[in-house]
Structure formats: C-alpha cells, structure tokens
Write a structure and sequence with these properties.
single chain; about 75% helix; globular
C-alpha cells in the first residue's frame, strides 16, 4: 500500500514537472492543435460546398469535426516521441534512474502531462468548431462520453510516441515517421471523406482503422453526421469497436514501452 502511494506521489511529481515546463513552452499546444484547427478551417470552408455526405443532408462541416478531433491524438505522437528522445539524449533519464523511484514512473508521468496538452488542444479545436458552426445534438452524458473516448485514443497514441522516441531517438527521423503516421491514419479513414468510393480491400482496411472507429463513435454519441452504412461490423458498432481496440492498444503498448525503456535507459 505504501509502495503504491510512493509510486503515485512520484508520478504526480514528474507530471507536475512536465506541466511547469509547458508554461514556458506554450507552443507545444499550438504544435498539437495547429494542424487540426487548419483542417477545420480549410476543409470546413473549402470543401463544404462541393462534398456531400449521402445520409446527412449535406452537413460536411459537421461530419469532419470528429475526424479532426481524432487528428489531435495522432499529432501527439510526434510531441511525446521528441520529448522522450530529448530526455534520453540529455541524460535526464540517467539522473532519474539514480533516484529511488519506480521504472514506470518516468514514462507514466510524461504521458499524463502530454495528455493534459492533448486535452487543451481538443478544447482549442472544439472552440474553433463552435465558431464555424459545429454543434452537438446528443445528451450531456453522450457528449462527455465522446470526449472521454477521444482522450483514451490520445492516451494510446502518446504511448505510441513514447515507444517511437525510445526506438528512434533521432529527431529528424522521428519528425518524418510522426508526419507519415499522421497523414496515413488520418486519410486512410473515414475522418474527412466517406469510404464508399474505395475498392473493397482498401475500404475494409480503412473501416478497421482505429481512427475511423473513434471518429464514427463520436459522431454517434454527439448526434452528428455519420458515415454511410456499409453493413460491416466497425461501421455498425463503432463504440464497441473503439473501446475494444483502445483497450488492446493500451494493454500492449504500455508494458512494451516499459520493457523498451528499461533497455534504452541502460544504453
């Protein structure tokens, strides 16, 4: 019991340390939110007049908002990867290793602090969406459930970033891979376009993309414009698919990252 309390106290101390750094580097929030905000403005105004979603009455701007929110989680991969790689490169991890704290404390504190950054970025995107006319039509509980799902997705992506930072370490390479993941998972999904025009095999891959499931689940919970039904399981049951997918991702990524951390810190 006392050991758990000690680890909890260490995690809070390291989370607070990262958040104090965030006050001196607010551009970190801008870095995560900038691309999604640009997508709201560019796609919302540029494509809204030419793209129609079949079952929505043409509300393309409402359709893309869930996908833009999911893009915040993908943007967090690069931020966390660069932060973890920087801590390893500067010897900060070595100093933490000399302290009497659990091995998991450093990464858990880092990801929790970056989750706060993700939450702030989601708030910025939500405000931008409200300014351009986006509204939720679900209940208060359903609205909160949608945002909780987005935070769970962001947390899973933060562990992807932690793993990437420990494996690659080179900042230029991390930037390249993070940008590739952002583009690949954003656009090979139903975030911004319905999947009806894709060939069968590519459509199946896009439907099982976690970004598609999370985006469609949020649309259902918020009462927003949804994807055209194809009869496939992830499209018909996006909330269940999202919960299972995110649970599996976190259950795999966290222990794998901690295992890599033990070997990375020892190099």
């Amino acid at each position: 019991m006392s050991s758990a309390l000690t680890h909890g106290s260490d995690v809070l101390a390291l989370t607070g340390r990262h958040l104090r750094h965030l006050r001196r580097t607010p551009e970190k929030i801008i870095g995560v939110a900038l691309t999604p905000v640009a997508m709201v403005i560019i796609l919302g105004y540029l494509f809204a007049t030419v793209v129609k979603v079949e079952n929505s009455g043409g509300e393309y701007r409402e359709y893309i908002m869930a996908g833009v929110f999911a893009q915040v989680g993908l943007s967090c991969i690069g931020i966390t990867a660069i932060g973890v790689a920087g801590d390893l490169g500067k010897g900060l991890i070595d100093r933490f290793r000399s302290l009497p704290m659990g091995r998991a404390t450093v990464l858990v504190g880092h990801t929790l602090a970056d989750l706060v950054t993700a939450a702030m970025s989601i708030a910025v995107v939500a405000l931008t969406g409200l300014l351009v006319g986006w509204r939720v039509h679900g209940t208060f509980g359903e609205t909160l459930a949608g945002f909780a799902l987005l935070l769970a997705f962001a947390y899973a992506m933060l562990w992807v970033g932690a793993l990437l930072g420990m494996v690659m370490r080179n900042l230029e390479a991390i930037n390249g891979v993070a940008a590739l993941l952002l583009v690949l998972f954003s656009f090979l999904s139903s975030s911004f376009m319905p999947l009806t025009g894709l060939p069968g095999w590519l459509r199946a891959a896009a439907e099982w993309n976690p970004v598609s499931a999370v985006s469609e689940a949020c649309r259902q919970l918020w009462g927003n414009t949804g994807a055209v039904s194809s009869g496939s399981y992830p499209v018909e049951h996006p909330v269940i698919v999202s919960l299972i997918t995110l649970s599996v991702l976190i259950a795999v990524l966290v222990p794998l990252s901690l295992r890599v951390y033990r070997t990375s810190a020892a190099r």
